[in-house]
Structures are given as structure tokens and as C-alpha cells.
Write a structure and sequence with these properties.
Elements lengths: L2 E6 L17 H15 L3 E5 L7 E3 L2 E4 L7 E8 L7 E8 L13 E4 L2 H6 L6 E2 L19 E4 L9 H5 L3 E4 L13 H10 L2 E4 L12 H8 L4 E4 L4 H5 L4 E3 L5 H13 L1 H15 L4 H13 L2
Parallel strand pairs: 1-2, 1-5, 2-4, 5-6, 6-7, 7-8, 9-10, 9-11, 11-12, 12-13
Antiparallel strand pairs: 3-4
Helix pairs in contact: 1-9, 5-8
Length: 297
């Protein structure tokens, strides 16, 4: 058994009580699910949250507040945390942000994608990213005709509503500027499973999406995905999603959605390609990759 610690920074409790909130962002989910996966594999796991809270046990993981005493671990995974309030025999920075690391005094740096590592000034660093629990998507559900979804932050894909307006559109994410809705996990998974098409017209003010849990989870649900050629999207999903070059042209996106909805052969081919891709990113596989990299000399 290995003692594994996570320390977290910069999340600022945006999700109103993460990790117990009903919905969370991709970076928070990576920490939450990796911690629970390590625990299920027999490791002793503790997560230090970036705010004050009472100590708690949940999903086999010990959760501490920011003010808890220093801890010691075999492996310390610092998720965008440079304060080093804890000690690890091996330390690993798990970088998720769109800003270069404030310092690199770690045994290993791990980014979300090669694109992310390059943009952050560490082109030779390794990348892993997030994962998915395929059991969440094992149940088959009937697709809702013309149902188009976007499950990413509204400020990253401001054109989503305009593209989806001609269809049965749902934008699920914590509301940004009055756009979007927040669902619990079960309802969120149902939405992904019953959609016909997932659109991700990524148009960030600056590079900001270096993995996209939204794309991966729709892949697991067998829902074809259309993405922009921005950030890490071509690198990670170019062989499993429909990638549309920018800048975003509403007519091109509308035509792509219509083609997917009307062409059953294409829909099934993309649905299966997504499922195959998702199978490479299970949490068990991703946890093994993170731990192996962190433990390497």
C-alpha cells in the first residue's frame, strides 16, 4: 500500500463545496476521481482542499481543509498547488491551469496534453489528462430526436446557443452570464446518453482547454462530438470527433449537425469511434499512469 496525498490550489471553491457538490469542473473531477480510484485500489489517500473545512471521510478518501497540519506521504500529487504545505518522498505537479507553473521544484511535471505542456513552456514534459468511469454509461438509453447538447463552460463556447437554436438544445454547466443549467451527476449522464450530437464550438479568449472531460464523457456515452480546432482538441480527439476549422462559422456547424443527424452510417461510425477512444481513458488506467510517472526516478 502506498500513501498518496493530493494538495489543491486555485479552485477557490467555485463549485460551492467541491467535492460534495452535484457538479464540478474538469480539474476538480480529475482530483476527485483519481483519489477515489487510488483508494479503491488499496492505497491510503488524503486530499487537502483549498478552503477551510472539517476533516471527513468520503469515497474511501480522507479530506482535509487548507488549515490542517502538515502531512507526509510516499507520493504527493500537487494539483496546481505550489505552496507545498505537505511532504512527499516523491512529488509531482499535476498542472491544469492555463498559466505557466509558478515553480517547477517537483520530481515530475505532468500536464493535461502535449499541447498544454508546450504552451506552458515545458515541451518535453509528459501528459496524462482525465478519465472516465465506463460503468456510468453502461445502460443504453433512447436518443431524443434533434437533441443537441453542450456541457462545457458557456464562456469557452459562446456560439453554442446560436448553433443549437435550430435544434432541441440543452446547455448544461453551472450558469455563466445566465446561460446554462446545473444538473446532478445522474441527470448529467442521462443528458449525455440521450443526446444525438454534442457540440463544442471552442472559442476561448486565450488558450484554456487542454483536455476536455466534456468530450471524453460524451465519447463514453456514444454521442458523436463536433469540436473546434482549438487548444488540444485536434491532438486528443482528432481521430474520434468531427473537427471543424476556426474561426467559427455558424452555417458550417449547422450543416455538420444536420449531416450527423441524417446520416445513420456516419452517426454510428462516430459513436463507436468515441466509445473506443473512451476505453483508453478509464480511471483505473489513468491512475496507473499518474502513479507510475510520479514514482519514476
Amino acid at each position: 500500500m502506498t500513501s498518496i496525498g493530493f494538495s489543491t490550489g486555485y479552485y477557490e471553491n467555485y463549485w460551492r463545496g467541491w467535492p460534495w457538490t452535484s457538479m464540478m469542473g474538469g480539474s476538480e473531477r480529475i482530483v476527485t476521481e483519481l483519489a477515489a480510484t487510488f483508494s479503491s485500489q488499496g492505497h491510503s489517500v488524503t486530499v487537502r482542499l483549498p478552503y477551510r473545512t472539517d476533516e471527513a471521510m468520503w469515497r474511501g478518501v480522507r479530506w482535509l481543509g487548507v488549515d490542517a497540519p502538515e502531512q507526509r506521504y510516499d507520493v504527493l500529487l500537487c494539483a496546481d498547488d505550489y505552496a507545498r504545505r505537505d511532504h512527499g518522498v516523491r512529488t509531482c505537479l499535476v498542472a491544469c491551469r492555463s498559466d505557466p507553473p509558478l515553480n517547477t521544484d517537483f520530481d515530475r511535471l505532468v500536464f493535461l496534453s502535449h499541447t498544454h505542456a508546450q504552451l506552458m513552456g515545458h515541451p518535453d514534459a509528459v501528459s496524462v489528462g482525465g478519465g472516465v468511469d465506463l460503468a456510468d454509461y453502461a445502460e443504453s438509453r433512447k436518443r431524443i430526436p434533434k437533441r443537441v447538447i453542450c456541457t462545457s463552460s458557456a464562456d469557452r463556447c459562446p456560439q453554442a446557443s446560436a448553433i443549437g437554436s435550430a435544434f432541441d438544445f440543452r446547455h448544461s454547466y453551472r450558469p455563466v452570464g445566465g446561460i446554462g443549467e446545473e444538473l446532478d451527476r445522474a441527470a448529467f449522464v442521462r443528458l449525455q446518453q440521450t443526446a444525438k450530437v454534442h457540440i463544442y464550438p471552442l472559442e476561448p479568449v486565450r488558450p484554456s482547454d487542454f483536455f476536455s472531460m466534456a468530450v471524453l464523457e460524451s465519447h463514453a456515452a456514444g454521442t458523436p462530438v463536433i469540436v473546434s480546432d482549438r487548444d488540444s482538441m485536434p491532438e486528443l480527439w482528432g481521430d474520434s470527433a468531427w473537427v471543424i476549422p476556426g474561426p467559427i462559422r455558424l452555417a458550417a456547424w449547422h450543416e455538420a449537425v444536420l449531416e450527423l443527424m441524417s446520416n445513420r452510417t456516419l452517426w454510428r461510425r462516430m459513436s463507436e469511434a468515441g466509445r473506443v477512444k473512451a476505453a483508453r481513458y478509464t480511471w483505473d488506467l489513468q491512475a496507473a499512469r499518474y502513479l507510475s510517472l510520479a514514482m519514476e526516478a
